[in-house]
Amino acid sequence: MLPEILGELGWNTYMVGKWHLCPEDEMNLASTRRNWPSGRGFERWYGFLGAETSQWYPELVYDNHPVDPPASPENGYHLTVDLTDKALEFIRDAKAVAPEKPFFLYYAPGACHAPHHAPKEWIEKYKGRFDMGYEAMREQTLARQKELGLIPKHTELPPINPIGTPETRSGPDGKPFPMMDVTRPWDSLSDAEKQLFSRMAEVYAGFLAHTDAEIGRLLGFLEENEMLENTLVVLVSDNGASGEGGPNGSVNEMKFINGIPDNIEDNLPLLDDLGSTKTYNHYPNGWAMAFNTPFKMWKRYEFEGGTSDPCIISWPAGMKARGEIRDQYHHAIDVVPTILDVLGVEAPATIKGHVQSQFDGVSMRYSADDAAAPTTRRSQFYAMLGSRAIWHDGWKAVTTHPTLSGWSHFNDDEWELYNTDVDRSELHNLAAERPDKLREMVNLWHVEAGANGAFPLDDRSALEIILTPRPVLTPARDRYVYFPDTADVPESQAVNVRNRSYVIGALVDIPAAGAEGILFAHGSRFGGHALFIKDNRLHYVYNFIGMHQQMVVGSEDVPTGENLILSAAFDKTGEDPPGVANGVLSLFHGDTKVGEAPIKTQPGKFVIGGEGLCIGRDSGSGVNADEYPGQRPWRFTGGTIKRVAVDVSGEPYRDLEREAEAMLMRE
Length: 667
Hints:
This protein has helices at 2-8, 79-95, 120-124, 134-148, 191-224, 254-257, 264-267, 285-291, 304-307, 335-343, 435-451, 462-467, 653-666, and strands at 12-18, 44-48, 60-62, 65-67, 103-108, 233-236, 311-314, 350-351, 354-355, 379-384, 387-392, 395-399, 415-419, 479-482, 502-510, 517-524, 527-534, 537-544, 548-557, 561-575, 581-589, 592-601, 613-615, 640-647. By secondary structure, it is an alpha+beta fold.
């Protein structure tokens, strides 16, 4: 990796923000750090390991250990500001000692990935700016792009549902076209829906503008300290605008990963909370199309809407060009070769004794001083979640296969053919006119797919992919034991209670009445469960994907004494719908049942990243912050938690209770 190369040459190397480059089974404190930033050449780093995190309550790692955010949202905390502060701190720390030493900074804020969280004052700057709707905005954006010379004057817009809808298309086996990938025409929306959708765009615009200001703060520091002139800055997004909000947008993206569509009736009441700590929000598909103007589709698809991204390069001391546009075709894999070219550095054949693979990328440096030079890139291969494409010498072949659809039958896919040198919006399909060229391109795709390990192809749903077992650091077991005063346990490595019976038992000492707080918690306000004491009663809550707070409260006061076992036991009785376990949750003081109620458990994960399993507190937003006693993080007080065991063997609770008593006697 680039920091490994530069570090060996004497550079300081820093990283802040999103990593998402190590396996889930290595995102924990019992695992190796070899694929953490600190193991891949970054001397210092501060950020999060997973795909995304809350901007208000982020999962943070500082160098090689988890840390809590330095402040709360109530005190003005926001992740992007925090990351910028750390980037500036890293640079200052080294410059104070070695002002001439060069540095490499990888600045990767969580913005503007979901969830779309932004300070209210930034959101309000855009109030009313999107009331015209996404289709009108596409037209306005297209006109501005032509004025700026970003696209050819003859470019036209594709339709808002360019590859079909459930009414017009189905799979080879009759499987439906995915409803999540439909855009609703603006004029079909009710006034309330238009208001909601407009607000979702306002939130995103505020999120982006806030991020832009923080990037400006970073560059401003470099300029004030006379470092900007000879600093190479490369600014690029990692994919097109995203369609994960579906046709109606989302107030809680955890619904998407649990296979549950958002409901307009549920979303409308949260309009004023969009962007706040109370939502995990995302805009609807219509805005993804608008923000991707003039392209088709969005992230997950290999049409230009999913893969064509802005790239801005600045190097005042090394480039004559200022404010100019370049049209050469390039890819993200060309960034590292460009940086090495600028520095005059040859990529090493080995790093830490490991032979390095060949770079697929090429340098873009030539284009800085020659706008008319032909691109040095010949081909680019694409494949993601069932969508496929190949670009070669200005031509592009792409499939219309819906992603995450479960259609499979990839040999039956329709391939479209475009000359993207003149048809940037992929509107004029030349497959029928140039079958020979299409055949050549499809053959090239298969060659590249084999070379890049793209098989087998996979278009399963998000829920199916997430539920597929992945490697874990230790084999799954029937009983898990957790302790207080430890770091959160990531969900991927924690006990899995999905669609099964389980028992959560806390071994505690409570010397006198008045103990309160969290015994066990896993998840967030957008999905999770917790066992806690409040008002001297044992409570259990299962928050079903942020939609239903299912609470069970003990009917008797919690006893006092040593080696008490306070438990919650879920007995699964069925599934409705498939994957959603239904059953009875019972509360126990020892072997005495003190409460029960029917509950259901969600089919997929509680979170995509962060908000792990906690003992004696609930980090982050809290599974049910409105009902918890005390103040965040709602630590357990008035007693001592010795350990918490979670049993998923399916054995009856009373057998487990007798087993626990026998174990205590042995101790």
